[in-house]
Automatic annotation (TrEMBL):
Its cofactor is Mn(2+); Co(2+). It is found in: Membrane. One of its GO terms (biological process) is proteolysis. InterPro entries: TIKI1/2-like, TraB/PrgY/GumN_fam. GO terms for molecular function: metal ion binding; metalloendopeptidase activity. Keywords: Glycoprotein, Hydrolase, Membrane, Metal-binding, Metalloprotease, Protease, Signal, Transmembrane, Transmembrane helix. Transmembrane segments: none annotated. It comes from the Bacteria. It comes from Fulvivirga lutea. This is TraB/GumN family protein.
Length: 294
């Protein structure tokens, strides 16, 4: 579960409807078959979550399944090591004694017992702890949507691809200012109920309201709204990926599963592809139990 926890944490603003779906169809500009963009969240409550039929059908209609980085265990392990505090440091040096006590209590309350704080959690970068503490509260009521999408793609024999490698991911993460990380963690520790309310708001916006702007806002709120992190980790990388995205959709019908902030907004792929001349259409989806279920 710890490894999964670390799989850590849409365009033109003129049309509100463009933000009311996590799924977008890419057509036009010479494409013979459509491709799809699907905005994801790292983890969601498992109970009540179903991959929408519309999303399954979009995967089945595609021939290539694309994620941000590849999903192999070796890649995950490398990222896990990279997000630890350098030189065997601990997060304690950034926190007051009271904040250390509160953070330990949060982790122990939700299952991080048996020296888990000292042996593992305290060694993580502050922003990773923001995500990890949220995931821990879900305990066994947690699902990782990207993994579920991957399983559907495997079942339908899609080819797998990624837009970046783990080294690029790590390099971008390393530019997250430590001051913003610390402030984000301190907010989480000192306002944990409010922090969980923010997460629940994001889940509602994603699954119930299909308001991707709120999802993006809440994602950035959890990073202390760090402009530097937004620019380096999201905006710059998304723009860098655009030529590869265009190449892929010209070659074969492709399904892209990427974090919501990579999809919407001025620097998101919906907007960038529209500027390239493609027609991007939001697809109405339903997170209710699949219509084909018994």
């Amino acid at each position: 579960m710890i490894r999964s926890l670390l799989l850590v944490l849409i365009c033109a603003t003129t049309l509100t409807a463009q933000h009311q779906s996590a799924l977008y169809k890419i057509e036009g500009n010479g494409l013979n078959e459509p491709s799809y963009l699907f905005g994801t969240i790292n983890f969601l409550p498992k109970f009540g979550y179903f991959v929408p039929d519309e999303v399954k059908n979009a995967i089945i209609a595609s021939r290539v399944f694309v994620t941000k980085t590849d999903l192999r265990r070796k890649t995950q392990q490398k990222f896990t090591e990279a997000v630890k505090i350098p030189n065997d440091g601990t997060v304690n040096k950034y926190l007051t004694e009271e904040e250390q006590k509160q953070l330990r209590a949060i982790i122990e309350e939700y299952g991080g017992r048996n020296q888990a704080y000292d042996n593992f959690y305290s060694k993580l970068q502050p922003i990773i702890l923001v995500t990890a503490t949220t995931a821990l509260t879900l305990q066994y009521n947690i699902t990782y949507p990207e993994r579920e999408l991957e399983d559907i793609a495997k079942d339908n024999r899609l080819k797998f691809n990624s837009l970046s490698d783990v080294d690029e991911e790590i390099a971008a993460f390393e530019q997250f200012p430590i001051e913003d990380q610390i402030e984000a963690l301190k907010y989480t520790i000192n306002n944990f109920d409010d922090h969980l309310s923010d997460y629940n708001k994001m889940v509602r916006a994603y699954m119930k309201e299909q308001n991707m702007e709120v999802v993006k806002e809440e994602t950035f709120k959890a990073t202390n709204e760090s402009e530097k992190f937004k620019e380096v980790y999201y905006d710059n990388r998304t723009e860098k990926w655009l030529p590869d995205v265009v190449k892929l959709i010209k070659s074969k019908p492709t399904f892209f599963a990427l974090g919501v902030p990579h999809i919407i907004g001025e620097s998101g792929l919906v907007s960038l592809l529209e500027k390239e001349g493609y027609t991007i259409t939001p697809v109405i989806i339903d997170f209710a139990p699949a219509k084909t279920s018994n």
